[in-house]
Write a structure and sequence with these properties.
Organism: Galleria mellonella
Distance between the termini: 103 Å
Oligomer: single chain
GO biological process, one term: NAD+ metabolic process
EC number: 2.7.1.23
CATH architecture of one domain: 3-Layer(aba) Sandwich
Protein name: NAD(+) kinase
GO molecular function: NAD+ kinase activity
Strand order of the largest sheet: 13-12-23-20-15-16
Strand content: 25-35%
Number of strands: 24
Length: 412
C-alpha cells in the first residue's frame, strides 16, 4: 500500500482522496491490523479453535508446515571471528545431513578466514548466494536461522518487506534479547522446528511511508518511500543546535507538538530498545500497540504514551520549526525531512514470526532477567533472622535501661 505523490497541478482534492483510499485499504480489526497467517512458502500458524472475540489467543500460536521446508536462509553476524565455527558447523549439517538448500549473503563468503576450515570447501560450492538490496528473496526461503546478536534479527526483517519466513535466532552476540536459542545443541533444536514443534511470537512491524513535497517548478513526482521496521522509527533534530519542533497527528487529528531532541515511535519489540532508555515502559511483543516516546522533551509533563496498533500516525515539521528533522528506521536509512515532507506510520500486516525456545512468556521474562537484570535486588531477610536481631536489640535496650536506673541519684 503506497501513497501516491502528486504534483502541484493535481490539487489538494485528489491528494485528499488518495489519503482516504489509503485509510480505507488499511486492514483493521478491533485492536490492530490483522496479521497474515502464512510465513514464506510453507510456514503458517496452526489453526486453533480457542478464539476470543475472533482474536486468537497469542499463547496458542504455534508453527506448522503444510509441506516440508527445503530452503533455509542463514544470517551470520559479520566481522566476528567467533561466529565462524558455529556457522561452518551449522551449514555443513544443513547441507550434508539434512539435504537442504542453504542461502547466505555473498559478503559472508568473502571472509578470508573461512579458508582455514578445510571441510567448508565442499559445502561452499553448494551454497546459494544473494546480495541485500539487489536480489529478491520473496517466496524463496522457507525459514531463517540467525547466528549472532539482535542485529541479525533486525537485518533478517529488513530483507523481507512483505511476508517474513519463521525466524530461529541463536544467541551468539553481546546482548541477545531477541535471540533465545543456545547453540550447544543446535541439531536437536533445529530438528524440533523442522518437525513443527515450536511456539511463535508474532513481532509486529511498523509500516513507514515517507511523502516528499513535490517541486512546483519542475513538477517532479517523487515516488514515496515505504520501509518496514521491527524496532522503532526515530525522528530527531540531527546536527542542528535548535530544538526539534514536530507536529504529531493521530488518525488525522493533531495531538501535540514535540519540542525537544526528537521522538521515538516503536513497536512492543522495540520497547526494550531505545524507547526504554528514553523512559518508556516495556511491553510484551504480543500486545497490539504503538509506543510514542519523546526524547529529552522540553516539558516535564510530556510522558510516553501507548496507542492502539490500528491507528495511523503522521509526523511533520511544524510551520515555525527552525530546522529540518532527521529520521532513521531501525538505525538505518537515515535521511532529512524538510518543510512539506510527511512521515506516516502504522502497524504492518506483515509481522516477524519469531520462533520461541520455550514459550512467549518464558522467553520474554528470561530476556528481561538475563539481559536487562530487571528487578534484581538483594533478598529481604526472613522473619527468624529478624527475630534474632530484634531479640538481641531488646536485650541491649533492657541492659541500658537497667544501668541508667541504677545510676540515678536517690531521694533524700
Amino acid at each position: 500500500m503506497l501513497r501516491r505523490q502528486f504534483s502541484h497541478d493535481t490539487g489538494k482534492k485528489e491528494l485528499a482522496r488518495a489519503l482516504e483510499e489509503f485509510d480505507r485499504r488499511r486492514t483493521r480489526s478491533l485492536n490492530a491490523p490483522s496479521p497474515i497467517q502464512q510465513f514464506g512458502p510453507c510456514g503458517r500458524i496452526m489453526k486453533n479453535s480457542a478464539m476470543v472475540m475472533q482474536i486468537q489467543d497469542p499463547a496458542s500460536q504455534r508453527l506448522t508446515w503444510y509441506k516440508p521446508p527445503l530452503t533455509v536462509l542463514v544470517i551470520k553476524k559479520v566481522h566476528d571471528a567467533t561466529i565462524l565455527t558455529p556457522f561452518v558447523q551449522l551449514v555443513h549439517w544443513l547441507v550434508h545431513d539434512k539435504s537442504m538448500v542453504v542461502f547466505v549473503e555473498a559478503a559472508v563468503l568473502d571472509d578470508t578466514l573461512l579458508a582455514e576450515y578445510g571441510d567448508f570447501t565442499s559445502v561452499r560450492e553448494r551454497l546459494m548466494t544473494f546480495r541485500a538490496g539487489t536480489d529478491d528473496l520473496t517466496d524463496k526461503i522457507d525459514f531463517i536461522i540467525c547466528l549472532g546478536g539482535d542485529g541479525t534479527l533486525l537485518h533478517a526483517s529488513s530483507l523481507f518487506q512483505q511476508s517474513v519466513p519463521p525466524v530461529m535466532a541463536f544467541h551468539l552476540g553481546s546482548l541477545g534479547f531477541l535471540t533465545p536459542f543456545e547453540f550447544n545443541n543446535f541439531q536437536e533444536q533445529v530438528m524440533n522446528v523442522l518437525e513443527g514443534h515450536a511456539a511463535l511470537t508474532l513481532r509486529s512491524r511498523l509500516q513507514c511511508v515517507v511523502l516528499r513535497k513535490s517541486n512546483d517548478l519542475t513538477k517532479d513526482k517523487k515516488k514515496p518511500t515505504t520501509i518496514l521496521v521491527l524496532n522503532e522509527v526515530v525522528v530527531d533534530r540531527g546536527p542542528s543546535p535548535y530544538l526539534s519542533n514536530i507536529d504529531l497527528f493521530l488518525d488525522g487529528k493533531h495531538i501535540t507538538s514535540v519540542q525537544g531532541d526528537g521522538l521515538i515511535v516503536s513497536t512492543p519489540t522495540g520497547s526494550t530498545a531505545y524507547a526504554v532508555a528514553a523512559g518508556a515502559s516495556m511491553i510484551h511483543p504480543s500486545v497490539p500497540a504503538i509506543m510514542v516516546t519523546p526524547i529529552c522533551p522540553h516539558s516535564l509533563s510530556f510522558r510516553p504514551i501507548v496507542v492502539p496498533a490500528g491507528v495511523e500516525l503522521k509526523i511533520a515539521l511544524s510551520p515555525e520549526a527552525r530546522n529540518a528533522m532527521w529520521v532513521s528506521f531501525d538505525g538505518r536509512n537515515r535521511q532529512a525531512l524538510q518543510h512539506g515532507d510527511s512521515l506516516y506510520v502504522t502497524t504492518s500486516v506483515y509481522p516477524v514470526p519469531s520462533i520461541c525456545a520455550q514459550d512467549q512468556i518464558s522467553d520474554w521474562f528470561d530476556s528481561l532477567a538475563e539481559c536487562l537484570h530487571w528487578n534484581v535486588r538483594k533478598k529481604q531477610k526472613q522473619m527468624d533472622e529478624m527475630s534474632d536481631m530484634t531479640h538481641s536489640s531488646s536485650d541491649t535496650l533492657e541492659e541500658l535501661e537497667s544501668n541508667h536506673h541504677d545510676e540515678r541519684p536517690t531521694d533524700t
